[in-house]
Amino acid sequence: MDDRLLSIGFEPVGDWELVGDRIKARFERDAGQQNVLYAFVRSAEVMYVGQSERTLRERMGNYASPSANGNSTNQKIKRNILELLRSGESVEIFALPDNGLMHYGQFHLNLAAGLEKSIIRKLSPPWNWKSKNGEKFLVTERDDVIEKVQDPEAREEQGAALPAPAMNAQEETQQGKQNDVHNDTEEERSYSGDVDDETPPEPAESLQPADPPETIGSFEFKLEPSYWREGFFNGRNAGSPLLGEHGAKIEIFYGDEKTPFLGSINRRNTGPGQTPRISSGAALKPRFQRLPEGHTMVVDVYSPLSIRIRPKTE
């Protein structure tokens, strides 16, 4: 994985697996995160970078099951992933969720949208290139043109971006303006999709729904007085083999909520077998205190680092 992405917070969140003749995204964490930057990585090489306002699980579902007459990018990425998996290679999924903390005055800065073009321009991932009328275009998730290559055949043979001819200072300034103002560029006016499929990107509301997340197991606990007061719970023996290692962060969904919050796993000083204690006081405490002490809770485990807690209904 490129150190430049790791240094700004990209983390491994899952990978792609081959199921018969289909592909399926497996997640360890962040599947429910919205407004996220993601990257597909093969043998430490970044193959594709994208950005989605939907949840990561939903967006990956569109690659796994693209509609027949829909977005050509979805279909192309699926073919690329299938080819690698069938050849025995692995494709990892990395992500950088927007934590919502960046603001300019009172306005939230969209971290994912702000970084996408810069990262793609810098790394030039091979799957972010498209062809049209004998030229190749480096594009974003939404087909905004970042760069145009005049000699696409040489690029296909080399598998990397062609070096740009040397420019003087005035030319560099002009080129920077063209790259930054995409709506006014000749490249974007002339580009309208992939060379073998000119279908425009499908609107978000028509994208295919993702499969519901699968669980690897579940267990129950009662809201003991200390859990209720402080906002934590112990996984005990039932949860121990299902949950992650000591010190790991874990994403927690509560009830029917679609957006998770983060907690931590503590396996030290928790009794025999070092069973896991899940803590997220600021988030869990007010939710627990909507219920009476002693209420039974169910924990559905999506992965060792992703769970959903819900009150048990009789």
Task: Give an overview in words.
The chain has 314 residues and is of the alpha+beta class. The chain is 26% helix and 30% strand. It has 2 domains: 3-127, GIY-YIG endonuclease; 217-311, DNA-binding pseudobarrel domain (At1g16640 B3 domain), CATH 2.40.330.10. The strands form 4 sheets. The protein has a 7-stranded mixed beta sheet with strand order 11-16-17-13-14-15-12. It has a 5-stranded antiparallel beta sheet with strand order 2-1-5-3-4. Strand 9 and strand 10 (145-149) form a beta hairpin. Residues 150-218 are annotated as: Disordered. This is GIY-YIG domain-containing protein. Residues 179-191 have a biased composition (Basic and acidic residues).
Query: How many extended strands?
Result: 17
Overall structural domain count: 2
Low-confidence stretches: 151-173, 175-209
**Roughly what fraction of the amino acids lie in strands?**
25-35%
Distance between the termini: 47 Å
Structural class: alpha+beta
CATH architecture label name of the largest domain: 3-Layer(aba) Sandwich
Organism: Caballeronia calidae
InterPro entries: EndoII-like_GIY-YIG, Host_DNA_Degrad_Endo
Protein name: GIY-YIG domain-containing protein
